[in-house]
# Entry
Amino acid sequence: MWVAVPRTLALFPITPPNPSSFSSPSFSPLVFSAPSSFAPPPPPPPPPLRASSSPRISPTHPSPPRRAPGNPAPAPAPAKTPGGSTRPSWSRPSTRAAPSGPVGAVAFLAESGRSGEALQVFDYWKNNEIARINEANYSRIIRLLCERSFTSEAVSAFQDMKSHDLIPSLAIYNAIIHGFAREKKFDEAIATLEKISEVGLPRKSETYNGLIQAYGSHKMYDDMSKCVKRMESDGCFPDEVTYNILITEFARGGLIERVERIFRTLLSKRMNLQPSTLVAMLEAYTDLEILEKMEKAYNRVLKTKAFLKESLIRKLAKVYIKNHRFSCLEDLGNDIGGTVGRNDLVWCILLLSSACCLSRKGIESVVREMELAKAQFSITFANILAHFYLKMKDFRALDVTFMRARKENIKPDIVTIGILFDACKIGYDGTRVLEEWVRNGYLQDIAQMRTDELVLTAFGKGFFLMKCEKLYSLLESDKKRSRSWRYCDLISLAFSERKTGGQQPGLNTNKYEDLG
# Structure
């Protein structure tokens, strides 16, 4: 029977695995320069006219070639960075153009935390020309400040707007209400909400949706329900967006009964469930390990082709492993591989699905696929194969696995060390492997775990690691902190009782009495 174990080892200071190959690429933000003054720079003077004797076409400034009729204009050149290098299109932070002019300057100053200067820039710009004092410009600046959590500055701009006898729109009121709510200033948000009726503006669901979402983000779930009741009493009824927000926030809080009740209401009203809402429901069922409902939600998500984060994929895999649903684990790997490609996480899931079933044919099939795909051999893959051959008591294949790891220059981690000594306990001769590790200095490295956490979930810690954990927990705290624990220190700790417990078969531990 397979044993499910917790993610971390309590043996000693072990570095958790860092599956950097699954992380999404990071994009370099555009670099903005702060304005040197609030006044816009004067336009450059026009170049002086040349004398008539000068040539019309100069070698340094040739005139552009003529285009034939019907030929399209050439594409503009890529943007240049301040250093002069060309910035590729994929390095831009978003497809939406960055705000330019005073709005761009205000956005830059607001993102830099200089909200006071941002308002000064806006005031200078609008005061230069009376026509710029209008509702549209104030709306852009107020919403910009609220989005960047400068609600007090946005309120100052709001008051200044009213001093010019401009009537704020519902969008401006919504921006301020949602800004207060995001900052957990719900009293100010409700007070602003009351002003909407005072000025005669109609209340719409968008106003309440932002409030409900803010309550959920602050885990104020009872206030979410109260806000829905207030919304209905004000004559504004929940729409599709409202129900999706409620389901998402309740799912994140693990309130399954409320989630399912609102889900039934949404279906009865023939409204659509957004893909992101389905993913939130799936994650809630996965966290609570409700297998049947998790599988139903997962099948719904597959139909929408919604994106699944790596953390959620790992949670799904853990639930399948703990419930011995190894065929479902294989389906999960194939499903994810079909959408994002077969990365290291997918290969790990596919290997584990066969290894947990003790299927030699399945393991060999996945290994052949990995070789055809030229997947890079890693410590995770090596330890999965080593665990599998240890379970099968195939010591020859275990030897081949250790040899391949050495040829690939893959250093052992604490899981590999544990597999070796667990194999020695049942008759494997690990002397040659241990001698190579000593000769290469691997055992002098600081102990860490680089293996994917799913491997420990599937196979457990093993005898050696559990023994190290037990002996390490018995040490005084001063001894734990007084040294950096190396692999050789842990091996010596594990064999510190060999005089009373006897020597392991298949390994001459006396030969390595002082591995340090």
